[in-house]
Specification:
By secondary structure, the protein is an alpha/beta fold. It has helices at 14-32, 47-62, 78-89, 107-112, 125-132, 141-152, 172-181, 196-200, 245-249, 262-283; strands at residues 37-43, 66-72, 94-97, 161-165, 185-189, 205-208, 225-229, 233-235, 238-240, 252-255. The protein has a 5-stranded parallel beta sheet. Strands 2-1-3 form a 3-stranded parallel beta sheet, with helices on both faces. A two-stranded antiparallel ribbon has the order 8-9.
């Protein structure tokens, strides 16, 4: 399928917004007088994970953040991994465990071994719980990025009917809580949802993060809808999102591109959380 160029007036340009945020973060880091240290834990040889880690290192360096990568083999003992994270809790300013992890590891146990005040990915049970109370400092980066992107384009949440097609703890669940915090009416859909279009047709905003190309098309949407495509997959060697862009453009008021929409915002939010945590740590000394 040919790529479709999105018209500027409908584009939710995550790359430009993220670039502006990173420029601001670079100024904050400079004022700190020291470089925050981000520790990234990587297990195994997953090519996509390595690519994401490289992207995070690149953006971190641009704003004056030191990004250290701790690599482990795919067959790493869980006890060894937990011991290293425990050590990092006392040495790093922020810690990320790059997902997915090898199947023999208990993912939540590993994530929960991160100190909540070093959890820049916002995936510990403690920090996920704080979101429901309205404390979003350590919210997961992708939901945080979606919220910030929509806020930049002055998309209203209060009173809006929002459908999220994803129920994971990385995106769907925390995003739903964050939107509820802003007065939205939220429906969360998953693979068991029957007649998905019945929900999406009534939505003011649709967020899809499934990783299934063409899942959302124009027939499933109402006029003037805002569409956030946080899905990513490869079709014939090309990166695609969940949205069938040609038909959706006819209905949408705003739409995110893939790539260049949610992805850049995710990294920017990750680094913003790190810098904010570092500022908080310095104030508490």
């Amino acid at each position: 399928m040919k790529s479709v160029e999105l018209p500027t007036e409908k584009l939710l340009d995550g790359k430009n917004v993220a670039d502006a945020l990173l420029l601001d973060l670079a100024k904050k880091v400079k004022k700190l007088g020291c470089s925050p240290v981000l520790s990234i834990v990587l297990c195994g040889d997953d090519a996509a994970s390595k690519m994401y880690v490289t992207m995070k290192q690149k953006r971190a360096k641009e704003i004056g953040v030191i990004a250290e990568v701790y690599e482990f083999p795919a067959d790493v003992l869980e006890s060894d991994l937990l011991a290293k994270i425990q050590w990092l809790n006392g040495h790093a300013d922020g810690i990320i465990v790059q997902l997915p992890l090898p199947k023999h590891l208990d993912v939540q146990k590993v994530l929960d071994s991160i100190s909540p005040d070093k959890d820049v990915d916002g995936l510990t049970s403690f920090n996920l719980g704080k979101i429901a109370r309205g404390n979003e400092l350590c919210a997961p980066a992708t939901p945080k990025g979606i919220i910030r992107l929509l806020e930049h384009y002055r998309v209203a949440f209060s009173g809006a009917r929002i459908v999220i097609v994803n129920h994971s703890p990385l995106i769907g669940k925390p995003l739903s809580w964050m939107l509820l915090n802003r007065g939205a009416t939220v429906i969360v859909c998953n693979e068991f949802t029957r007649n998905l279009s019945e929900h999406t047709l009534s939505a003011d905003i649709v967020v899809s993060a499934v990783g299934r190309a063409g899942l959302i098309d124009g027939s499933m949407l109402s006029e003037g809808v805002v569409v956030v495509d946080a899905g990513i997959t490869k079709v014939d060697g090309k990166v695609r999102g969940d949205v069938e862009v040609d038909s959706v453009l006819e209905k949408a008021r705003f739409i995110t591109p893939v790539p260049g929409g949610v992805g850049p915002m995710t990294i920017a939010m990750l680094l913003e959380t790190l810098v904010e945590l570092k500022i908080q740590q310095m104030r508490e000394r």
